[in-house]
Automatic annotation (TrEMBL):
Keyword Cytoplasm set for record: yes
InterPro entries: CLU-central, CLU_dom, CLU_N, CLU_prot, GSKIP_dom_sf, TPR-like_helical_dom_sf, TPR_rpt
Name of protein: Clustered mitochondria protein homolog
Family annotation (PANTHER family): CLUSTERED MITOCHONDRIA PROTEIN HOMOLOG, EUKARYOTIC TRANSLATION INITIATION FACTOR 3 SUBUNIT EIF-3
Region (Disordered): 147-177, 759-787, 1231-1268
Amino acid sequence: MAESENGDVKAAEEQIKVVTLKLAVPAFITKEVLEFPIGLTDTLVDIKQTLAVFPVTKDLTSFEFHYRDINLTECFPEETTIEAVFEELQLEVGDVIFLQVKEKAYNLAAIYDHLTRFRESIGLHFIDKISQEFGVASGASTLNNLNLTPVKEQSEPESEKSTEESESKENDDEEKPAVLELSKEELSQLKDASSDILNLTTHGFNLDQYAKFDAPTKNLKMPIKSLTVSQWSPVPALQQAKGDLMYLTLQTLENETFNITCHYSGFFVNKCSTINFNPAIKVNEKGSFNKEFLLSHLVDSLSPLFSKTLAENEETLSNATSYPESYLLESNCFLAAPWVVDPTTFKNYPDVSRSQLPLITNGVDGSDYIKEWNEDVQTIRELPTTTPNDQILREKLLHKSLHDFTEVATTTAINIIKGNVTPMNPGEPVNQHIFLKNGIFYSFNTEDAFLSTGGVEAARYASAKDLASVKILNRMNVSSISNLVTCIVDYLGKRVICQAPVPGVLSSGVDEEVPEDKVAYGLSTDGEKFVQDKSFENGLKSVAEVFHLKTHSVELENGAKSDGDLLISKDIKGIVGSDHRKYIIDLYRSTPLDIEFIEQNWNESEESSYPHKQASVRHEAVEEWWRRSVSALLKEEAERLEKEGKLEAKEGEEKPQIVLPTDKVVFNPDAFSGINESEQDREDVRTISKFIKEHLIKEFLDELPKVNPPFDGGHLSVSLHKKGINLRYLGFIAQNAQERLSKTLSSLKETISLNEKEISKRKEEEEKKKNEEKDVKEDEKKEQEEEITEKSLIDVTQVSASYEALYKTAILEMVSRAVKHLLRKLSADLPCYLMPSFVSHFHNCLLGGDVNSTPVSDVDEDLKSFFGAKSLEYSQLTTESVIDLVEKEVFIRYRFQLPNTWISEVSKLHLLREIALKFGIQWKSQPYYFTKEEFDAHVTSETTQVVENGSKKNNIKNKKKSSQTISTKEVLRSSTFVADDIVNFTPVVKDSGYRARVLDDMFETVRVHIAKDEKEVAFRYLAELITVYEQVYGRVNPEAAYFYSNLAQIYFELGAISEAANIGRVALILNERTYGFDSHEAITATINSAFFEISNKDFVNGFKLYGQAIKDLCFTFGTHPSLVVTLANMADTLAGVKAYDEAVLFYERAAELSIKLNGEYSSITGLMYYRLANLYITVKKIKDSGKLYAKCVDIFSRVLGPSDTYTKESVKYEDNIAKYLKFLDLQKKQTQQSNNKPVPVKSASGKSAPVKASKKKGKKDIQQDPEFANKSVEEILKFIEGDKKKSSSSSKKSKKRSL
């Protein structure tokens, strides 16, 4: 394995020669020669795409590349590399390559491409996006709303930094905190940003303020009024012979209308009108005419406002944002739809041509809409992968094809759910309908294969597991075996499985009454026999190796028995397609059953049983079990060989490598599903099942306090899945979190009790010493001071707060997921048109019970006649019944009994968000009130239209005729939600996309160079990696967000702080747009970006970003433990720029939150007080500082013990402040006494005679105090803090100690 990894790194490190490409383009575009660098591994299509970026050539779509007299476009495929072109031509490649770009005659397909490019270049694709996307305001971002200033460029050279660092090391004895000078304007802005953050953490904000997204494209103007396919299209046969391809109608901003002919030679204005057809070129009296090769040039010549508007739009975009990623369209992905939106900020634009888009995007005869998806994907998979460039090209094409499939499948699945598509079997029940459209097979969860293991629930679970296995096989690129192109669409509570069918699998013989079973390997469709085509074995061995499957025999209760050993699970079926490829389907059993969980929680006869018996272990858990098992075996084998002396390297040879057989650590995927099974196989599967609870969950809980607890339910789910923990263990995790919280608090209580006894003991000893009147000698003082330099036992890990946060999030996640399943079940037979009413009613019952426990469903009376009584049964739901349903569902799915008061303890706004994200609901951004008091105080009226029946007199026939009128009425809300509050439902899509391994290998190469301290090489590879990522994924994609997040961290580690800050902003935008504006990925990216800005000495920008992160965190979670640390770090930053007053406020707020989360008697609360006390000294609040040090003494002595460093330092500071305050008090009294002294009497000699002050018994002369007399303020402060020379190491540790 090590050798293969090294080989991958070597392949990724291939040097790519870069040359200069010079392109001579047609003179009507520009007379200048375009020049840009390219790699020899770049293809002709890469150069073509580069031309699409240049402003002068972006509208050029029909052209050819020529090298001298050779037409490269005709001679070579577009995917051919430049290196291969020159090798084929037997020419050497110099440092400069000169090519010509010549225009090519249009055909109808080229005209369609040109029109599409023209729409994009003038901005119409932004409008198209609004009507085509599945969600409202998809891809929303908030970064531009923060009004960040440009990233500061680092001006200090590295040499100066190193000099300063060396100087600071030499002056350790005079160490002072770094203080930066800010301008008055910067300091003012920083204070304003700080004030906003404090207000946010104190007062919060409303939901209507939350959905304020930036929209850089909202102020764009359209440079034309309309451009449509003319009524005279399609071109008649008479004109086709003359070269006409299509006719267009253009309406300019000047309100002029032109009819345009699309000719093979270009575009020209013709003589057509609305009633007369004359496609000939229009020539005016002077003999001039309008004809251009590019449509944009023609429109520009007809409309003076065209170019002006385009220029204004470019300026608008540049002013709106410095980051194009905030408005660029997505690449090979769906953008995240926010769960809360303001529908008033989005509008639809009139555009007749939008309805004609299918005409120009689906090919000349519409055939492009129907694709052979399977053939396309399988052909791409079979492309060569010998070189990195081959791998990159393959990944690029594969990701594009997979997403195109998912996009088409999702659109059709939504139409299927809405009833817009006719099924292939209309006579069957609705849940058994199947569909074949656009080359994709669609089906619902069919329970036929899972009748004995859970029915529909088992089928639903199996479909997700099948997709997970498909993703792994896609990533691992298993050869000689194929899997189906698959995605899953959940919409309005219904799940549609979308697959590109195996070629020939749906066709049957004409005379066949019973369709032939197509299964060639595995258990037959009827489950009666096993089929084992030997031709599958080579390919299935690779699949078995990927999933660590053991060859095994299977015998079933019905008598079916395998002929020898199976390589894979019996449920995975092999099929030979009509294209002669070998396919495997139904991959849901590629991991073992979670038998421990099933045996404990599944009993078909019990109502509270787990829903199905298909519960299996996650792939991540199997991989971790396999990795640890292999590691243990390698260690054991190494010890054995070492004892035998077989690991010693011979002269001139490398040390022998230990290699284990691939079948050494494997499992039987069919264990516990048949009869007469191997006990060892069952024991292996049981071991993997136990591995989840005994290791993975335990380790997750152990590590939790050391890392940030989850920000929300989605964060918790992702974290558990990465660890290999199934979400069915949420109840177990919540229970353990509660137990650990209880143990932590009990342990703290016991520690405090022991320390209190020690404190009492010491006090008694001190009293004894005082009674004996023993003076402390100077050397004893020194010993005490030396003791303070010892290392503290302080642990600022927020253990109790972390487990409490986990418990809270687990409850929220269980409830929201249970609600998702209830919404699905209750709406199974519900018409789509009733979904807004049903969902709002359910939410009123669940979340608005305090406002109205028996809400009324808001369905218009005149519309009820369209639906049967059964469809409206949901209106009988009440708060009590819904809460009961939720509690039962949580117990069934997560084996956890919710506390009786859970509905009053859970945050209803957070629960609203979690349900919306899981079910695909977009709510209107407005305040929602969940208590009776709030609701009554803010109750609003809704404008509704009411249909009224009446009658009117017909004057002609003198008869009365019934009529209906619509009137508008204001109706007060009686519940928290109404149907109109739901803006939209969005699909939740699971696709088979994956992270390309070749890119991971390239990233690993970069890390290798960084480890070797080869920074220049690392920077070069990073620049190349950015280009490759954009080639494979595009600029706006979740994988690009992941890449830029890592890239920013790497740049920071390499010392390129400014670059890290810039890249961090891009990562933030991409995470917001692809994962969600308030997702945990976006919050993490915001915090990281703020850190980079602060490191770049841009404090105002950093605090704005921290404010955004805190806002989102408060809204998605509430008071999160990480807020304490974040506020404390921000306080340190403020102190570093002399904003001491604001720093004090931040530490005060951090201390308040710490008390709320961790309790007053906790290490971190004591540390917050300790640092705040230090700041109080700085701002001259000496008395307040003394009080806080007293609190610190109380906290630290109880929590850490009286002997701890922090306890001793706090005691010392408290004592010194007390002395200082006493000195100030005595000084004040002395001043008062001096003011009250009598005027001196002059003697005979004229000199003033001194007045002797009488001394009272027990009083000392103030002037005789040698410790405070004649000391400056700075010296007094030094005295309070202690002699730094004696406790320098202690102070350094306290400063450098991180939270």
